[in-house]
Each structure stands twice: as structure tokens, then as C-alpha cells.
Amino acid sequence: MAHPFTEKPERRPRRRRRAWAAALLAAALPAQASFIFFPGLDEYAPLPRGPYVDFTLDYTHIDKIYDETGQSVDLGGGQVPPGESLESVLLLPRFLWIGNVFRDTKVPILNTRNQVFRLIQPIGWQMASANLRALDERFGLKSRGAGLGDTYLLFGLYGHEHHWGVMHFNGLLATTFKLPYLGQYDEQSLLNIGTNYLTIAPQLAGHAEFFGRLFVDATAAYQVNYKNDKPAFGGLYPSDPADVYNLEGSFGWKWAPRFYTTVGALFRASIGANRYANPDLNLVQQPTPANPPLIQIPGLVSALLPVPLPAPPNPAVFFISPHPGIYQDQGVRATMLSFGFNYVHRDSLVFDFRVLWPVEGKGSFFKLPYDTYLAVPSLTQPGAYERGPFLTTVNTRVSGVGEAAAIPASPQFLFRIVWLPWAP
């Protein structure tokens, strides 16, 4: 529940809160957004039985994000020069096995359909540019992360392949588990390769081919996200990330026996709001001056202070702290287009290059109230200050961060190699 002061009409001059609000907003920058499902060629086609190995390299340069109104905004909240960015490089090794462990049994349905098992163990590196790192250090935080990511396990069941004229198609029913146990996660960092919460995502997908040249892949998935018991970056990672539904589709065209191009789209949106329990993002160096000093506002401070104020132009200084409570955003949303090409080398290697281009989005922003106290000279430590009387509460607009909250407005680049070890 919000502090009672936040329910009253805003009567304080906007300029006075600008210094704190801008600095706090600037510290809340997005980490790499995570999409479990990417549109791709033959993504859900019934592949021959056997093991597969592939590697995807994902590079993202994030210099803009979407705010809660759908506008693309710069990183840093105006507190750093334009052009500051976050860099993310993720390597996604994947092992895929297709077969039928129930083939010689009498288990209905399973004994006549292939099963699929997939294991993905990401490895990543993320870093913010110098000015953003310096900004986050003002809050005792950091903007870098490297190591293993969360482990992804998928278990699925292929449907039978059907033929209808020039078209043949099949379905796939699967569930993906995102396990957070190995993922690098630092509560003091903006950027983490891991997420520190479990996700279970049931998925229904389909694949169709027309004339042997046009390929269509599509899926619908629902991500059930569990609670994060250690929200990072001053509590601006959601403690209760919202569930998310995903829709994606891809069209591929075979130009030559070994060369394909694809175009696709991806949409994801949260079901309801992300929630944030007791965020504690705060400035390390306190007390902090106001801009302009509160002592210049007639009738406010003089009625509250039991001690004399310094004479102008010496500014008054203040302690601030976030007000405890449960806060929530307005949900998140992202739409992206994908463009790519594939080259098949012999029958054992596939090279896939794709660009994911943001079209529109809605990021996580919410109002976080900060309680403001006058700093008064310490009676026991000359030259130091201690927290004095409570003055007021200031609503500050901050950004949720992490893969469940931040929606980048910057493109992603993916390079993927698929290898069938025992193909000719």
C-alpha cells in the first residue's frame, strides 16, 4: 500500500524533485531481454531421429528502451550523454535429441509418435558503457555480468505428419523449463546472465510446407513465472514477475536447394503487472542537496525544524529513502520482426543468420515514493549530519529492470550453426 502522502494531490514544484527523480530513474536501466521462442526456418518440422548439436551467438547493443507509454527513450534518464549503451553477447549451445523411447511398448499415443528432448545452457557476457557504470556506482551497484545462464530443458511430442494436396503439416506439443540453479546472479548488479526464478512454458506449435518451397512455422506459448526471492539492483528486478504469453510465426522460402530466406514476427505480453516488493534503491552519498533548496519554500521548513537552518546561499541537505511497500507496473509488451537467411552445407551443417527488429513495445515503469528527511548537524560528530524530522514524500518514476521488465528498442543479431554429427 502506498504511503498516505502519495495519495494527496501533487503540490510540490516539479523542479525540486528533478535532481533525485532523474538520478534514480537513470540508475534503473534494462538488462538483456529474454525471448524463449524465436521465429525460424523449420523450427517445428519433424526432423529425422538422432542427436543434433547447434550453437547460437546472440549480440545486442541496447541504447534505447520502451517506456510505459510505448515511446522509445534513451538510456540514462538524461543524466548521461546520448549514445550510452549496454552490450550483451550470449552463446547458446544446444543439444537436441529426437527419437521414440516408447517404440517397443504398448503405451498409447507415445509408442507411435517421436519425442523430442532439448537442453540449452547459455554462456554470456554483459557490460554497460563507462558513464552508465559510473552512474550506477552512485547507488552502490554495478553494471556487468558474466558466466553461465539459466538452464533450459524442453520435452515435447511430435504429431503425425499429414498430407493435403500440395501441403503437408504436423504439430508439436512441448513444455520448456527454465531452471535458475546454475545462472550467474548478483543482487547488486543491473546485468545478470541468470534470472533467479523458475519458468514453466507449455507450448503448442505447428509446421507446414507448400510445394516443397514455402515453409510456415508458428507457435503459441504461455510462460508461468515463479517468484524471485532475491530481486537484484535495489529491488528493481520484479519480485513477482508476471506470466507472459508468446505468439510467433515465420515464413521461409527455398530459393535454391541449399539457400533459404525467412521473415517472421514475434509478440509477447505480460498477463497483468510485474510486482516489486520493498525496493531499496538509494543513493550511497547522503545527505544530498535539494534543487532548489527546500529552505527557499516559504512556510514549509520553518514550521517543522527544531534547529536553525544555515543562512542562504548555503543549501539545506536531506536524507532520502524509498518507502516500503508492494509496487507494480502496467505490464510489458513487445513486438518484433525477424529477417534471416539459411545456408545448408552438405547434409550435416546449417548456417542461420537472423536480425530481430523491434516494432513497438511497452516497458516497466512505476512510481516509487521516497521519504524525505531534513539533515541536521550531528551533536556527537562535528561536521557530520544525521537524519532529522520527516518533511514530505516524493513520488519518483523508476524503471523495472531484468528480462521480465525491460523491453529494449534496439535490434538483436543472431548467428546460428546447426550440426548433425553423424550425417553424411
Features:
single chain, 424 residues, mainly beta, Porin, 2 domains, 12-stranded antiparallel β-barrel, 4-stranded antiparallel β-sheet, 23 strands, elongated, disordered N terminus
Average pLDDT: 80
Number of separate structural domains: 2
Q: What is the CATH topology assignment of the largest domain? A: Porin
**Structural classification:** mainly beta
Helix content: under 10%
Q: Which sheet architecture does the biggest sheet show?
A: 12 strands, antiparallel, barrel
Taking pLDDT < 50 over at least 5 consecutive residues as the criterion, the unreliable ranges are: 1-35, 291-314
Radius of gyration: 26 Å
Shape: elongated
Beta-strand proportion:
over 45%
> How many DSSP E strands?
23
Give the termini distance in whole angstroms. 64 Å
- Give the strand order, joined by hyphens, for the main sheet: 1-4-5-8-10-11-12-13-14-19-20-23
Task: Compute the number of helices.
Answer: 2
- The ordered string of helix (H) and strand (E) elements is HEEEEEEHEEEEEEEEEEEEEEEEE
State the name of the first-level CATH class of the largest domain: Mainly Beta
CATH-defined superfamily of the largest domain: monomeric porin ompg
CATH architectural grouping of the largest domain: Beta Barrel
Question: In a few lines, what is going on in this structure?
Answer:
The protein has 424 residues and is mainly β. The protein is 5% helix and 48% strand.
